[in-house]
């Protein structure tokens, strides 16, 4: 949206919090970055120590830790103790939603020891891992074997447990679906302390399909078996500039990975990786990647770009150069490509440290980046936290591919946020209806990107300060998110629950389907033991009494409707 077209808003009067935010970089430079680097290094040493152990030793430790969890759950007195939560501190979570549910009385179970890669099964092409294994750790183990998880989320700190219980996506999701779609089996400790293994075709198949998006409210995840794929040493990445309207950009993005002839499962026509970054209402860069061998990458004339070095231009800024120099191709070491957005946290790093993208800072201090999101949250305080809720947006809109243009126009009109991130993913038609599901009858429409078993969706990543905020104008962030959520419900979109949500309970269950989830809550004893997913995601503080009463009222209504006899 141009300045002439931008709505006229009154100027916003600055308050003391504005100055704290403006100069927060001082705290980040001298406190957050050094502590972050130290924690990253100590975590790395712990991961290396774990990798030195045999798989047999790791499994023995895992069994002992599971026994501790089972024993701890059986110690709980439901009439006296609060609802079950993990012992992880509220600020440690990577998501921007504040973990206010832990302010209520709760019964803690410590899962901090579950951070080992338990086995890499090359015959079954499955990795068995514990929930606190993060993406940086798993790629460090698998990539040297020319293997990788089918979906590797970009940021190093994202954990397996968070990506399963919540939401995970990557540029390969147009082929494999969301992170949770690549899981072969879940190992769950239920409310009564029993350990079960859930797969899509065993007696716990309902639990298998209910776990994704449940936010850990059905049981405690202690291990998962995840699909592996063969890879090569490099990613051949093509950068293609696009100039036009937002609808033009949306179409160019769709054409970059979805053949118009509908041959979506043809690997010759569909790239291995896809993402698009939109820098303004008229300019974008579409990127497509294919795995390439070391021999191909090192052929004369090919350019190799090791984007992982600390002094390198931030990836989103490097990609933007295609708008000036036109289409170009380069080869990036595969593991560095996986984590291309880690150092700059997409483009959020620019807001946190306004000068961190400058060459001198990258060269002298880039090795300290990125600051840990958990430490940023821990050092912000209540006032700054509320400020970010009002003046800053971090949302993902999971929208059907054919509606991406409409979503882009809505965000441009209502928020004026750039850059924007586009990443496609399959949303599978499953044997049961889960919390997120494709549109009814999508397979009959034969729209671009869809197949018989999956509808193509897109994550529209909206991360930055809105245009009015950058111009010093009045902006109501909570209201903007509320209107966005209403638009999403009307257009069969979904909102990942790591984000700050303004949804009330009724609207939450209009966006998501409660049927299977509530069935499993009741069947596996989660009611009265684990907080429901809505209240765990709900913005604001909660009390145990509020959660229990609201959940019981909701369940009574839901089951009254379910139990009605059919006509």
TrEMBL record:
BP terms from Gene Ontology: steroid metabolic process
Domain FAD-binding PCMH-type: 45-231
Membrane topology listed for this record: Single-pass membrane protein
Membrane-crossing residue ranges in chain numbering: 21-45
Keywords assigned by UniProt, alphabetized: Membrane, Oxidoreductase, Transmembrane, Transmembrane helix
Subcellular location field: Membrane
GO cellular component, one term: cytoplasm
InterPro entries assigned to the protein according to its UniProt record, in alphabetical order: Diminuto-like, FAD-bd_PCMH, FAD-bd_PCMH-like_sf, FAD-bd_PCMH_sub2, Oxid_FAD_bind_N
EC number: 1.3.1.72
Designated name of the protein: Delta(24)-sterol reductase
Taxonomic lineage: Eukaryota, Viridiplantae, Streptophyta, Embryophyta, Tracheophyta
């Amino acid at each position: 949206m141009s300045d002439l077209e931008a709505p006229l808003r009154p100027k916003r009067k600055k308050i003391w919090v504005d100055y704290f935010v403006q100069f927060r970089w001082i705290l980040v430079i001298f406190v957050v970055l050094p502590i972050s680097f130290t924690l990253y290094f100590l975590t790395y040493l712990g991961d290396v120590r774990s990798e030195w152990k045999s798989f047999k030793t790791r499994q023995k430790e895992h069994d002992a830790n599971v026994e501790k969890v089972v024993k701890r759950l059986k110690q709980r007195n439901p009439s006296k103790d609060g609802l079950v939560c993990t012992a992880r501190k509220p600020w440690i979570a990577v998501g921007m939603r504040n973990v206010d549910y832990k302010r209520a009385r709760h019964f803690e179970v410590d899962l901090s020891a579950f951070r080992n890669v338990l086995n890499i099964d090359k015959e079954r092409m499955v990795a068995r891992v514990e929930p606190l294994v993060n993406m940086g750790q798993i790629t460090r183990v698998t990539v040297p074997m020319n293997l990788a998880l089918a979906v590797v989320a970009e940021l190093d700190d994202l954990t397996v447990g968070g990506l399963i219980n919540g939401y995970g996506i990557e540029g390969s999701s147009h082929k494999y679906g969301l992170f949770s779609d690549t899981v072969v089996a879940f190992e769950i400790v239920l409310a009564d302390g029993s350990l079960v293994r859930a797969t899509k075709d065993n007696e716990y198949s309902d639990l298998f399909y209910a776990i994704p998006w449940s936010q850990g409210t059905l049981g405690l995840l202690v291990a998962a078996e995840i699909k592996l794929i063969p890879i090569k040493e490099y990613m051949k990445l093509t950068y293609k500039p696009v100039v036009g309207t937002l609808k033009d950009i949306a179409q160019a993005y769709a054409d970059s990975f979805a053949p118009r002839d509908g041959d979506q499962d043809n690997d010759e026509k569909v790239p291995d990786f896809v993402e698009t970054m939109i820098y303004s209402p008229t300019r974008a860069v579409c990127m497509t990647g294919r795995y390439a061998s070391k021999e191909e990458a090192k052929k004369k004339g090919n350019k190799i770009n090791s984007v992982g070095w600390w002094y390198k231009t931030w990836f989103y800024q490097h990609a933007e150069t295609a708008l000036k120099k036109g289409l170009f191709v380069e080869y990036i070491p595969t593991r560095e490509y996986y984590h291309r957005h880690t150092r700059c946290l997409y483009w959020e790093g620019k807001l946190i440290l306004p000068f961190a993208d400058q060459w001198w800072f990258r060269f002298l201090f880039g090795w300290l980046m990125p600051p840990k999101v958990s430490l940023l949250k821990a050092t912000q305080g209540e006032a700054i936290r509320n400020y970010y809720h009002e003046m800053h947006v971090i949302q993902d809109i999971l929208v059907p591919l054919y509606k991406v243009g409409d979503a882009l126009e809505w965000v441009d009109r209502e928020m004026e946020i750039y850059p924007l991130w586009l990443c496609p993913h399959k949303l599978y038609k499953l044997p049961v209806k889960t919390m997120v599901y494709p549109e009814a009858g999508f397979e009959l429409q034969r729209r671009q990107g869809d197949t018989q078993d999956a509808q193509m969706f897109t994550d529209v990543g909206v991360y930055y300060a809105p245009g009015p905020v950058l111009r010093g104008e009045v902006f109501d962030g909570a209201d903007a998110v509320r209107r966005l959520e209403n638009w999403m419900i009307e257009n069969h979109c979904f909102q990942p629950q790591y984000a700050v949500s303004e949804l009330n309970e009724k609207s939450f269950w209009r966006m998501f389907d409660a049927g299977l989830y509530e069935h499993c809550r009741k069947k596996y004893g989660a009611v009265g033991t684990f907080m429901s997913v809505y209240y765990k995601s709900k913005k604001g503080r909660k009390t145990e009494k509020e959660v229990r009463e609201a959940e019981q009222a909701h369940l009574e209504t839901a089951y009254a409707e379910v139990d009605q006899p059919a006509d």
